[in-house]
Amino acid sequence: MAFGIWLGVFVLLSVWPSVRCSDLPRGAIETVCRDRYLLVTTQLSFAGNEPRFEAVDADGVHPITKQYGSECGYMFSILPLPGHAELRASYFSCHTDNQDDEVFTFSFNLITIDANGGDATYSVNATCSLPLPWSPREVSCEENYMEVSVRGEVSGLPGTTADDWTAALAEAHSSATSTWQVMFQQEGQQLTPMSPSEARELGYVFYLTQGRLVFRSPYTPGSVMGSVTMVNGTLVEVVYPILISRQRWVVIMVNLVVACSTDEGMYDGAGLVWQTPTLLSPLVSGLESSNISMGVDGQLLDEANTAARGYSLDISDTTVQISIPFNAAGGYRKSFVMANMYHEFYVVRLYYEQIFMDDSGVETRLRLHRPMNTPLLIQHLSIINQTVLEDRVFTVYLGNLSYDVDLVAVKLNGHNFTILEATKSGLVITMVPQPNSTLHAYILRVPFDAVIHKLYPTEGLLEYLLDINYTLVILPQAEPYFYLASVVAQFNDVFPPVFKGVCKEKSIRFQMDHKPFDYLWEVGVGPYILTTNLAAKRGYIMRNDSKSLTLEVPLFSVGYTYKDINLKQFRGTFEILSRAPKTLEVKSSLAKACLFQTTEIIVCSTEGVMTVVSVILAIPGSEPSGSSLLDSTCRPQEMDDTRVLFSFRLDTCGTRVQFDYQHLTYENEITVEHTSQSVEAPVSTRLTVRCVYPLSGLYKLFAYRRFEADSPGFGTILTRVPVKN
Fold this sequence. Notes:
Distance between the termini: 161 Å
Number of helices: 8
Number of domains: 5
Mean pLDDT: 85
Shape: rod-shaped
């Protein structure tokens, strides 16, 4: 037999895969020769969601099912996150053409579902040359199987005690024949020989190459001939076969023990953690040295790249622990929505290699593939208010978004905007990468004068409030997710404009010093906004520069109210307002009242009272005491040598009423009797006094028969007309 023959291994330093595909779209399938397996990947966009493979050899085609793959050295998986399906085929897989353990030729069929629902078959062929020399013993811990291969000259390997060999040897002498048999060592059970074909029926495969002996076991903790043992706090799956053959007086025994950590990794709140015993007994014992490396997706990383990704590899005397931070490069992060809650999970496909050199001088190389994933995690987005008050623009940062999450719309204080509409409306939405991660973020910029709510919760405090409803979608299924946020910008010492009033001889002068937030309010006179046009129309004198606003209001201009009128003086009041532009709510006001000297005046009040002070000195021989209104019983309330003062309700003293479509006019006459040199009889001079009100401001007069005007009427004293008695 060939087990005692030492075989040298010829090493080819480069990998030369050759692929031949039938009618295969370019880029649909890729093949890569790795250290100990061929990797075949196909994009799901081409192959669909349920591709499958068949192994092809001279005997026909062999569907690679889950069970068949674990027995024959194939690991097939569909990986939605990276968007492909992959097949890892061991160099010692069942239907691989092996040339001297140096060149390996593979042939597969890829079967997909075509547009009509039928099968579409594509052939894929690849040849790999050995990229790395074989170690005396190599162990592969795949996802679905464990595989060990030993050099043909090796018999007793480390990890086997003298008692183990003594028991096995005794059984071999008594029961073995010249053909090969296998015994599975299990604690507390007697060794029972069986043929390789009987072992094959249990899922265990023994395979002889030109220079190596291969054993493969399904990776199923608690399998028929396997056992799970605790080693330094970690569960280890162990299958311990001994292959034996007796030829005359010689017994050949080969130890094919295989052991793999069953640790599936755990999430510790910061990342994924996986561990394995530093000394993986019973695979090795009496450890002299060990070289440990790690990587992802079947490729090892050097120390610089491991550190750059934030991975950590901690090695103690008993345990090797690997930590991979959440969302670190090399893994896959997936987002989805449940009950409008943003969830994520993170998957990483760990690749681990350890080279043992034990006290017997035999090197064992172990390789392990271990997919790990976090539990479903509720992901909390980060909102940062980056607003700079002086810029007068809300700047809001929405972060911690995975690559498969896009922002498609925003609702700002009840106003909906798509991304395009927001841009057209002067809003700015920018996607930016998140530092030191694969995440991204969005920055939203909204000017204060756009759709912002202004509040004044307390005196002197101004708040701008922006309620945001982000509409995000999870790709590729475009699943919507809504995220609410509110941001506030506060300004202190914000007060409405303050006016100072000064009484002049025939006017009132107002002045307001400008402050930064004056634009928040409008300055008004009554219901009207104070503008240059209004000032010019009413005869106000207004000056406005960068420092202050000055308004001088001449006496008897529109907007005055008058009280306490007598022959000596009267009180004139003019009010200027500061109010909110939208609500017209008055925030501050100044009603400046000044005493003015009485000369001649007519006042038409909003309560329907006409007050007149008229000068009669210019009428020769006049007697103020003899003056009256149309109703002669209505006499002056006050008089002196030159003037008379009448004050009466508009519905008394014989007042006449006229109206047209726009105005209501009340008119009376002051009759002054006096003597004339040309006429012996007494002469009367009549002065017409008139108050005109706009009809639009007198609705209560007609609705409730009560005089109440919205604003004072406009009064006039007409030319004197002499009349003979």
